[in-house]
Structure prediction request, 408 residues.
Amino acid sequence: MKIRRKSTHNYANPVERFFEKLAKRFKLKNPLSFTSKRSIEAVLFLIIFLGFFGFLAYRMTLPMMLNTFMQTAYHLLLETVFYIMAICVLMGAISKLLAEFGVVRLMENILRPFMKPLYNLPGVAALGAVMTFLSDNPAIITLSKDKNFSRYFKKYQLVSLTNFGTAFGMGLVVLAFMTGLGYGKGALIGIAGAIVGSIVSTRLMQWFTLKSYPELDEPVAEGEGDEQAISFKSEGSVFMRFLNSILDGGKDGVGIGVAIIPGVLVISTLVMMMTFGPSAETASYTGAAYEGVPIITWAADKIGFIFRWLFGFNNAELISFPITALGAVGAALGLVPRFISQGIIDSNAIAVFTAMGMCWSGYLSTHTAMLDSMGYRKLISKAIGAHTVGGLVAGIAAHWLFVLISLI
Prediction:
């Protein structure tokens, strides 16, 4: 009777067991050379990378795929990125003016009574909503680190500001972009949907946090803060304050505009190549911009009835917008002009796009850094889960609000 020898290595990971067998197959003396974490990551990455682009090259041919990849990125840069950057610069200047001359403080005072009943947050949290709406998600982190601001919160409430602030990120840019394309009504309905999604996301985050860490139900600091110490006023004459606000706000807008370039050129290009098919005129691949293999469209068609009922999407290609908004709302905006040129978009879709674009606004790429900077890395998964639900609710709410208003 043969005695089977047990392996001297204990591989709990199935991937590691696979590489152990591979090492034995090729009679390698040190199977661990195949099973180091970096080696496994490298091999898996190569398999996925070459598999994905190999599939596109097989369908489109390699020269056409490469040309389409570069042409799409180039067209997005010229036709979309610079347009969004111009909006960011103008809206940045306007945002700074609103803060400098007290409009932000006025808006905060108007919104303050709604914070406790809707979000279970102190009234001063309205300042965070206004600031992220006028700029971007990280603005809430700057406020949360201000002791005069954070003193009003309990710890679990302060953590939920990550979800609360993100739900309004780049709202002014999104609103201006959609309105500039002639869809102001849909964009305003979308903002209402984003507010619904923000309530769900913030409340869920608070519930998840208290359920797992009840000790966070205590004040951040003892005593009350001085709200008036959170000031935006600068020194100088009215004219100089006006001029400095325009220049500083425009400079901030340039920073936001530059920051969206990688997302638009990389993410939007890849998403478009998985959304649209070959040239409509020739029904073949020509290497022109915006061609590709419609993988996302094919998958969305299989469950299209769900998207039609939830979001009112009549074309499967439209699902690409919320998918892209998970990583960067600026990149998602880059898809809209293409949808318009194909005639597959309407005001309902704009409402849903605005709601989900604002509410998600690239939270997958910002939540980790935001919570880490606040010192609550352990809550990242809960924040992402709550915000995923909130974004979906925002899109659903925007669609059905649009249907309701259309019936009136």
Notes: The longest helix spans residues 62-100. Residues 134 and 239 are 22 Å apart (CA to CA). The radius of gyration is 25 Å. Confidence is low (pLDDT under 50) at residues 1-12.
